[in-house]
Amino acid sequence: MNTRVLPASDAAIREAAARIRSGELVAFPTETVYGLGANGLDASAVARIFEAKGRPGDNPLILHICSPEQLRPLIDGEPSERARRMMDAFWPGPLTMIFPKSARVPANVTAGLDTVAIRLPLHPVARRLIEEAGVPVAAPSANRSGRPSPTAAAHVFEDMDGRIPLILDGGACAVGLESTVVDMTGATPRILRPGGVTAEQIERVCGSGEVDPAVMRPLAEGERPRSPGMKYRHYAPAGELTIFSGEAGRVERAICAEYDRAAAEGRRPLILALEGHLAAYGGRRTESLGADEAEMAHRIFAVLRDADALGADVLFSEAVEARGLGLAVMNRLGRAAAFHIVEV
Ligand code: TXA
Ligand code: MG
After folding, report:
1. Which residue positions in the chain have pLDDT lower than 70?
2. Closest residue (by CA) to atom 20 of ligand 1?
3. What is the DSSP letter of 229?
């Protein structure tokens, strides 16, 4: 299959919407990462998503809508008062909420679960595409399963060339990390995946909220996660990644020692560090994580992809403070490192 990349003009969005309506797959920009979309009410179109990504069939998808009115037919019962407050505060935006599903949602969208994940994105191209298509759009991140999420059309092309007919190019994604996934079915909102909307913001709107403990640790042998996505190794660069956590000076010394040892063994190490710390690593090969939390969120997936392009076979990263957007950055870094985090 020939994969075209088109700037997201009106004509290209109309073509993409027509393809979605007829059961094909189209990649499109959102403010978080690029999505790989299909008609979310058409089980055979949805099956094509799993095939194109090589995604395990037990990992459910998010349904994307373009107005709050589209929510009700997809869920069982009315949204709670708390869910409504969340919608008012964070939609459109990088928030996905999990509700009991209605019978209209095909079983493969939710991987057989009785709950469904729904998000109303902010990106104008995403919203116009969903509106033109006239259906909820099922869309995971548009990477091959296990690879870092794509934050530019070129990343999607790297992973999906030959597998899908069309990629809408809307430039770089503003947030750069996937949406915050919050389970709204329990007594308090529970964050299953930290993202662009922070735990602190959710707590302010709801008065309560918890972060699932599996967000910052590997699952135990045989443990059943609340979100199937937690099970899979994700975002992993080809090189082996270790994270160092602790006081800045100690972290720098530990990373320099490990780097020098790896280089002496003839390996090709790379250091991922905060912009303000780069000078401390002397002439060693470094890549900036960014200067602050927002920039780190924005850069993290591109940095992980770059590490591969640079041929780094071993990576050492500074830990990031797990608060605000930093929690989401640390979650992606941690998972890329299979939670190999060394306290120094
Ligand atoms: O920002 C985003 O959320 C992007 C853009 C394209 O919207 N999408 C995205 O989708 O990241 P995906 O499929 O890569 O991640 C969806 C996550 C997975 O970890 C999945 O396990 C979880 O949401 N999920 C989906 N439905 C769920 C459900 N019913 N219960 C628990 N977790 C669910
Ligand atoms: Mg994904």
Report:
1. 233
2. 229
3. G
